[in-house]
Queue: 2 jobs
Job 1
Amino acid sequence: MTPLRVGFAGTPAFAAEALAAILAAGYPVPVVLTQPDRPQGRGLRLAASPVKALALRHALPVLQPPTLRTPDARAPALAIPVDVLVVAAYGLILPPEVLAWPRHGGINIHASKLPRWRGAAPIQRALLAGDTATGVTIMQMDEGLDTGPMLDVVEVPIDPRATAGMLTTRLAAAGAEAIVRVLGRIAGGDAPPSTAQPADGATYAAKVGRDEARLDWTLAATALDRAVRAFDPAPGAFTEFAGAPLKVWAAEPILGAPSAPPGTVVAVGSHGIDVRCGEGALRLVTVQPAGGKRMSAVAFAAGRAVVPGAEFGAARRCR
């Protein structure tokens, strides 16, 4: 039997875990598509994506087109025979010509239980919404936005204190296991049955913008706690103190808090800085001043003389 030739398209670490599992399962990968190298770090040096780095370690052919919308841009990939294209957080729209390229079409690893959280940021949106569970869907791709029939679904509970980084790690492992399971059935001639997505319950997970990560102190402390965890590790929740931006990397909601305008410090102690919200208070635990390193909120308070009555952010700028 001829081995199943698996093309792969993906960019971040979430996708790299799936590619590693596919390679470990012994499938030949004739081509890897990933986003072009991007500037990173303070020096803004071009850096390869996690998928490209893994592919190069395995001596796999790598293509990095900035788009697949034009015939010239997609021609190098389409010239390489593949039986199935696995897609995971690639970041580019796949036109019909690319979906028709492999004989088994494109199969997407999506980090939610579809149809909930179709779109670019399902992990962050699930955390922001306070969902208690999410999952991974292996989906046959069509021309819609994450609308294709489902081949496999794995449910993953969300830990109450999970960050986006933690949840991504769990979903990446679940997705890697699921895609190998689906490929195994395709390779064995027993293609998994496809199930149409439910007509009800569809939601859209829009890409996260940096301004969205600014903490709005007029919201409830529970909502801000979810935001801090949803935006860790990127783009990082932030506020302002004394006119300078301040990242917030760890916090916890305090339901009982003295009355004060939103953004006002109501307590400073050995556990952190309590900042009044629209409902309750948010205790800042780990912060990072602009140009500095992460530090405990206790150390920040001592160094900046933060006392009750001081103000973080500005409610009028957060609306």
Note: Confidence is low (pLDDT under 50) at residues 315-319.
Job 2
Amino acid sequence: MIYEIRTYGLAVGSLAEVEKRFGEAYEHRKQYSELAGFWHTEIGPLNEIIHVWPYQDLAERFRVRAEAFKNPNWPPKIREFIRSMHSEILIPFPFSPPLRPGKLGPIYEMRIYTVRPGTIPDIMKSWETRLPERVKLSPLILAGNVELGEANRFIHIWAYSSLDQREAVRAKAVQGGTWPPPGGAERLLTMTNKILKPSAFSSMQ
């Protein structure tokens, strides 16, 4: 399984119209394959939409996209609003849960880490030992390394019921020694995050 994470930067003030047009077009697109999630940024770099598409492999991605582009209703007619486009192919860690529809948010946090070359296997090991206790506090949505895109990056997404719950969970995890996993500081080069909210048509709410 692979996940394509597509991030579009939008013109200021266009988010509502973009999500409306995207949702309408998606009704035609989902016959080929379905979205795992669709969010917009609430805190962090504003005026972004982020959509995640699951595929079995790159061959399926190429096939599905070719079929979808034959449909006159796809892609959504939002070109006039797009200011930037970025795509990454993510390989989920073996212990990452499958992306399934559900009401898990409505607050989602995407964390993007650039790491020292060669350290992804060590990060996976440290995460695997600590994650069972951490997910008792709030669910992990996705964690994996970027295979195609910016090298030496891994991305993880967490769900919270509110920003207050996020603060409480993170404080409890640190105080209890549950999280973060050991060895992170010496492996990480950069860390960024985005607070996301789902669109009305996202399968994850």
Note: The chain is about 30% helix and 35% strand.
